[in-house]
């Protein structure tokens, strides 16, 4: 028996099955965390590639462009790119409800925003 504070806690109360279930839940959560981290890395790579491509295309079309000109071009083209990103994200990450965006972490959240 283990004494925890003022209460005596019997380790027999925790079945082997419960410990196994907790380990499985922990493993599942760790795997989900790693999947989400990999997805974030992929999205960051895509974003970086998109920005690089945009700058390269602009300089190709405007040889001798200055840094302020490139910055202005990127700033001017952001709205068009954001719309494309939002369209992609609406498929599985964001939900549009009454012209407002919400994260879609689960089916329950989607239902609560739609209901």
UniProtKB/TrEMBL annotation:
Comp. bias regions, Basic and acidic residues: 1-10
Annotated stretches, region: Disordered: 1-24
Domain of life: Archaea
Protein name: Uncharacterized protein
Lineage summary: Archaea, Methanobacteriati, Methanobacteriota, Stenosarchaea group, Halobacteria
């Amino acid at each position: 028996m283990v004494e925890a504070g003022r209460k005596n806690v019997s380790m027999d109360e925790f079945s082997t099955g419960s410990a196994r279930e907790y380990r499985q839940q922990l493993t599942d959560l760790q795997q989900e965390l790693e999947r989400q981290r990999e997805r974030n890395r992929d999205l960051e790579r895509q974003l970086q590639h998109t920005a690089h491509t945009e700058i390269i295309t602009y300089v190709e079309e405007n040889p001798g462009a200055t840094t302020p000109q490139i910055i202005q071009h990127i700033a001017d083209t952001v709205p068009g790119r954001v719309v494309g990103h939002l369209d992609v994200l609406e498929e599985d990450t964001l939900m549009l409800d009454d012209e407002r965006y919400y994260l879609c972490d689960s089916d329950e959240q989607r239902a609560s925003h739609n209901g």
